[in-house]
Write a structure and sequence with these properties.
The complex is a heterodimer of chains A (about 140) and B (about 400). With about 140 residues, chain A is mainly beta. In chain A, about 5% of the residues lie in helices and about 35% in strands. Chain A folds into two domains: about 45 residues, no CATH class; about 80 residues, OB fold (Dihydrolipoamide Acetyltransferase, E2P) (Beta Barrel), CATH 2.40.50. Chain B folds into two domains: about 140 residues, Thiolase/Chalcone synthase (Peroxisomal Thiolase, Chain A, domain 1, 3-Layer(aba) Sandwich); about 220 residues, 3-Layer(aba) Sandwich (Peroxisomal Thiolase, Chain A, domain 1), CATH 3.40.47. Helices cover about 40% and strands about 20% of the residues of chain B. By secondary structure, chain B is α/β, with parallel strands linked by helices. Chain B has 15 helices and twelve strands. Chain B starts with a strand and ends with a strand. Classes of the chains: A mainly beta (about 140), B alpha/beta (about 400). At the A-B interface, strand 4, strand 5 and strand 6 of A face helix 5, helix 6, strand 5 and helix 10 of B.
């Protein structure tokens, strides 16, 4: 029997899911918790016994900021909103908030429901492959 | 484990420079060697903190160049330590552990950085490399953004109205500038007011310019050795009583990061090893990369109860002469934050404070001092506790 360990869900597969409008994660067969974004083992109990699942993409905004000074490459998108949101299945994700006016966002956005999606980020240096960013569309 | 001491310390002025990272480090390390009353040939290892030297000067493998620049012998172990903004503290903690274990007797440890050479756009990009490059960076998240989200999380969790929290955050900047004005090596030696902070342009809501530490150039170094050797060479050795280090992953996996398990674990290790409690700390040099960062870390280190540190700042409890003097050097905010050198500059200040050499910013009767350094978004945390 081989002792090698292989990722169930790599970052590339996670990006491909986002491109197709799917939020992929891992469900642990030992403790039943969800890991998203993916990791080699369960974020809760370290078990390797996990299955790839499609999460429902429903989230709640926990905190946010409006970025007004950006990293090289994001100049064309300023100003923009970045948030952390809690998925219905438990994990938190970090993503770009879409569908809001950055200049009108206040702390009232905390607690708002959002739908998770994906977007292609601007062309960046030091970013191999075909990167995807998580998006959070306020519903 | 052998008892470990810091002998000499050295530091360049922080701020814009035309010197190279090697030149900056060599000046700081030479000062540390000279004030330890030793020669370069006495040094057995050089541990160098450096965050982004490759982007700044196109220079990799800095440690060997630094060792040769100082004239250290060919048998010297020279290594770079990278843990983003905690790089130098990781270097010093490893120097402590390896001197304690008997592997080396005399180590020069510190850090160097020339972040200003990159300009704001590339610097913001490379600093953001300290966040998760697969799952968070592509959202356009910045480091000010990480701490801006922390401020909103804190205001929401503890029901502190945002304008009130922002005023108290501004008071952190005012205090650190007041202290920095008394530090001849600080990048900014000018006092500011709450109004100065609240008038600044917005970097990442709710953080304004003066809520943020600057990009900086500079270096700092310390000589780590045994109790026995230190007593032979200097009048006032300062002892490393405890050291801790913790780690964490992506921001999203940390969830509510007003509580940082990596920092709590790191501090706990340091307190336990030193045999002290938070209430025993007289002076602390801590990682105020942003004003909200200082408030949150004070709670995670156990120096104030969770949810109470912003009020403590307002009451002046973190001023020199308050309950605990926090960042008498001016902190990252006013002294400057040359990433890879920051932890060593914190140690430099604590050593000088415990020796009673800080002049106008001296904390009276300081006996126990602590440093706290954060790398990335809490991915690397180091705490060191010092005594005399």
């Amino acid at each position: 029997m081989s002792s090698s360990v292989t990722y169930k869900l790599t970052h590339k597969m996670f990006y491909e899911g986002l491109k197709e409008g799917k939020l992929l994660g891992l469900k642990c067969n030992s403790c039943n918790t969800y890991t998203c974004p993916p990791k080699i083992n369960c974020a809760q109990c370290n078990s390797l016994d996990m299955d790839i699942v499609e999460l429902n993409g429903k989230a709640e905004i926990k905190t946010f900021t409006v970025v007004r000074v950006c990293p090289e490459g994001f100049e064309g998108e300023l100003p923009y909103v970045v948030a952390l949101a809690e998925l219905e299945e438990g994990p938190w994700v970090c993503g770009r908030v879409v569908g809001v006016d950055p200049d009108k966002v206040t702390m009232d956005i905390i607690g708002k429901k959002a739908t998770v999606g994906g977007k292609i980020p601007p062309k960046l240096s030091y970013a191999p492959g075909e990167p995807m960013a998580i998006t959070l569309k306020i519903s | 484990m052998r008892k470990v001491a810091v002998m000499g310390v050295g530091m360049t002025k922080f701020g814009p420079t035309e010197k190279s990272q090697v030149e900056l480090f060599a000046e700081a390390a030479m000062e540390a060697i000279n004030t330890s009353n030793i020669k370069p040939k006495d040094v057995q290892a050089l541990f160098l903190g450096n965050g982004l030297g490759d982007f700044e000067e196109g220079q990799l493998n800095l440690a060997g160049f630094c060792a040769n620049e100082l004239g250290l012998p060919p048998e010297t172990t020279a290594m770079r330590f990278e843990g983003a903004c905690a790089s130098a503290s990781i270097a010093i903690r490893n120097a402590f552990l390896l001197v304690a274990s008997g592997a080396y007797d005399i180590v020069v440890a510190g850090g160097t950085e020339r972040a200003l050479s990159m300009g704001t756009s590339l610097a913001t990009r490379t600093f953001a490399m300290g966040t998760d490059s697969k799952y968070e960076e592509f959202s356009g998240l910045t480091f000010p953004g990480v701490f801006a989200m922390l401020a909103h999380l804190y205001a929401d969790k503890y029901n502190v109205p945002l304008p009130k929290l922002k005023e108290r955050m501004a008071m952190v900047a005012v205090k650190n500038h007041k202290n920095g004005a008394k530090n001849p090596l600080a990048q900014f030696q000018k006092e500011i007011t709450v109004e100065t902070v609240l008038k600044g342009f917005v970097v990442a809501d709710p953080l304004q310019l003066f809520d943020c530490c600057p990009f900086s150039d500079g270096a700092a170094a310390v000589i780590v050795t045994t109790d026995e050797i230190a007593k032979k060479h200097v009048e006032k050795p300062v002892y490393i009583l405890g050291a801790g280090q913790g780690s964490a992953g992506s921001l999203c996996r940390q969830k509510d990061y007003t509580i940082m398990p990596s920092r709590i674990a790191s501090a706990k290790q340091a307190y336990k090893m030193a045999g002290v409690e938070p209430k025993d700390i007289d002076v602390a040099e801590v990682h105020d990369c942003f004003t909200i960062a200082e408030i949150v870390l004070l709670e995670n280190l156990g120096l104030f109860e969770f949810g109470t540190a912003s009020e403590a700042v307002e009451k002046g409890e973190t001023e020199i002469g308050g309950k605990i003097a926090v960042n008498p050097s001016g902190g990252l905010k006013a002294k400057g934050h040359p990433v890879g050198a920051t932890g060593a500059a914190q140690v430099y200040e604590i050593v000088k404070q415990l020796r009673g050499e800080c002049g106008a910013r001296q904390v009276e009767n300081a006996k126990i001092g602590m440093t706290d350094t954060l790398g990335g978004d809490a991915g690397s945390i180091v705490n060191l506790i010092f005594g005399i």
